[in-house]
Design a protein that fits this description.
This protein is an alpha+beta fold and 140 residues long. It contains five helices and four strands.
Length: 140
């Protein structure tokens, strides 16, 4: 919904007309067959996962994708991406031990999974002191 309504906010101005799956990663094997989706993408999802969990999710995305993966994610660790004066964001980002200090290296992970990087861009967030990664890769 956000892409359709607010696609102009962040590059690359993507408007998505697609079926979406809103399920736990644990349920996907029962719902989505291997290599059944031409494009699998995440948008501000992976950035909330612990590093090792994010790597496991990338492997599951590889299983599902037949051609492409696209990630639009915050590349900074959570502590560095706090909107000044926003106490809700501050509390959410600083709760518990920070096991997300490692930035996810999408190029390296997907290279090891057999992908070719087509686009890698780092773009500043217009509303917070963060940078976003746009990563598009194709299965070799």
């Amino acid at each position: 919904e956000n892409f359709g309504e607010k696609s102009h906010l962040l590059a690359p101005n993507i408007k998505v007309n697609a079926n979406t799956f809103n399920h736990s990663i644990h349920d996907l094997k029962e719902i989505i067959e291997d290599n059944s989706q031409e494009l699998v993408y995440t948008c501000t999802v992976m950035m909330h996962l612990p590093y090792m969990v994010a790597c496991a999710v990338a492997c599951e995305i590889d299983r599902i994708s037949s051609k492409y993966v696209l990630h639009i994610e915050n590349k900074n660790d959570k502590i560095n991406c706090v909107v000044p004066g926003d106490t809700n964001t501050l509390g959410a980002y600083n709760s518990g031990p920070n096991i997300n200090n490692f930035a996810i290296d999408y190029k390296s992970i997907y290279d090891k999974l057999g992908y070719e990087c087509l686009v890698y861009e780092e773009v500043p967030d217009p509303y917070a002191p963060c940078e976003y990664v746009y990563f598009l890769a194709r299965k070799k």
